[in-house]
Q: What sequence folds into this?
């Protein structure tokens, strides 16, 4: 039996990988940090190590160094997972028998393919079509499912919902599941049950707080005929679903106008997908978090703000000052591109409209130069084509000016800490 050691500080990541890799002929061992990983490498002598790059305490390179110094583990192959990592850091991993580097969220099919190549153990992966995306807006969880009910992606959905509930500290979950562009029949009954089970168990949502938004007649009939789903409402209008949840739990005046904003963003996402692109449009989320929680999530970051608006520069500097992050500002893309070749940034805030070198030119230059950093666009432009173009160029989020500190915080936390 082969042994795989997973070293990751996120219990959800360890649990998810344990679920996906716990197959015949594989024993999964987990370690909660770098020091625990070093100990288990010495005592367990695993056949493969899957490790997060961003480990605290001893750190990733200390684990690799200890592995290399032991004759029993010097040739043990390693797979690295990272929130973000550039080419220069990947090169430094080569002497430690690192076979592959994946960025999070890790695609399970690609990971399993790599494990098969290393250990020779095949995996059963659901290769049927399916798109699953999850967003949070005003403490409502939006789940979008399209093209099909892929069972592996439904497993991923379980952990993504749990991650977001913890991140946004949602006490009373309210969920809208949007099912579109999908053909369902009697053969899909088990997958529909799995979808609903995953959503209910991962969130703990009360059934009356769950809306299924779909125009699929079979799905509506299936849910309405199952007694266990009596309290789950199936609707065909997003605004109606939003109104039901908002008015029951909050002051409607607080959300005035937001239904239209959400509808516009989802329509935008749908338009993009019809042209063959999967564009992840992140909703502008709000989170109530204490200072200690924010410090833990985004403290000690090095952030670049590329924007010719002095007020935007000062707002972001002020927003991150209290959590110990270093913010460097640039009023033009050319100045930033000179610096970014030699200086590492964990996160980039980028305006699209600037003199000389604009935001799109910056994005092209980063891609051409092999410089991969998470980018949040800040812009007064909200036209559909502009937003789609920006996402196609690899940005992580798109915020419309004027900006709010809590929106900035939330986007940074979700982008830098998301594992699923």
A:
């Amino acid at each position: 039996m082969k042994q795989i050691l997973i070293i990751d500080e996120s219990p959800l990541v360890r649990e998810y990988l344990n679920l996906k890799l716990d197959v015949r002929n594989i024993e999964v061992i987990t370690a909660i940090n770098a020091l625990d990983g070093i100990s288990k490498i010495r005592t367990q002598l695993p056949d493969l190590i899957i490790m997060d790059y961003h480990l605290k305490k001893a750190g990733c390179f200390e684990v690799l160094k200890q592995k290399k110094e032991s004759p029993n583990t010097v040739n043990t192959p390693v797979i690295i997972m990272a929130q973000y990592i550039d080419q220069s850091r990947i090169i430094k991993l080569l002497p430690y028998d690192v076979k592959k580097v994946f960025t999070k969220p890790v695609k399970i099919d690609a990971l399993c393919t790599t494990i098969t190549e290393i250990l020779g153990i095949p995996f059963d992966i659901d290769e049927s079509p399916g798109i699953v995306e999850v967003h949070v807006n005003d403490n409502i969880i939006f789940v979008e499912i399209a093209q099909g009910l892929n069972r592996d992606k439904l497993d991923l959905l379980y952990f993504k919902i749990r991650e977001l509930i913890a991140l946004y500290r949602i006490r009373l979950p309210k969920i809208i599941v949007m099912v579109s562009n999908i053909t369902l029949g009697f053969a899909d009954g088990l997958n529909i049950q799995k979808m609903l089970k995953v959503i209910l168990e991962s969130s703990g949502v009360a059934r009356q707080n769950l809306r299924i938004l779909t125009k699929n007649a079979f799905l509506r009939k299936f849910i309405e005929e199952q007694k266990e789903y009596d309290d789950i409402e199936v609707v065909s209008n997003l605004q109606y679903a939003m109104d039901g949840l908002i008015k029951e739990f909050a002051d409607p005046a607080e959300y005035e106008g937001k239904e239209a904003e959400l509808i516009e963003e989802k329509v935008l996402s749908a338009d993009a997908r019809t042209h063959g692109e999967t564009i992840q449009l992140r909703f502008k989320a709000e989170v109530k978090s204490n200072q200690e929680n924010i410090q833990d999530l985004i403290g000690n970051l090095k952030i670049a703000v590329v924007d010719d608006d002095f007020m935007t520069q000062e707002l972001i500097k002020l927003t991150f000052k209290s959590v110990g992050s270093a913010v460097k500002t640039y009023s033009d893309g050319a100045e930033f591109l000179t610096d970014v070749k030699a200086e590492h940034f964990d996160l980039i805030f980028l305006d699209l409209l600037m003199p000389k070198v604009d935001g799109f030119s910056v994005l092209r230059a980063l891609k051409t130069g092999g410089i991969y950093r998470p980018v949040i666009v800040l812009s007064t432009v909200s036209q559909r084509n502009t937003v789609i173009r920006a996402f196609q160029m690899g940005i992580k989020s798109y915020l419309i000016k004027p900006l709010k500190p809590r929106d900035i915080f939330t986007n940074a936390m979700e982008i830098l800490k998301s594992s699923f």
Summary: The CA atoms of residues 192 and 302 lie 44 Å apart. Residues 249-297 have pLDDT under 50 and may be disordered. The first strand starts at residue 2 and ends at 7.
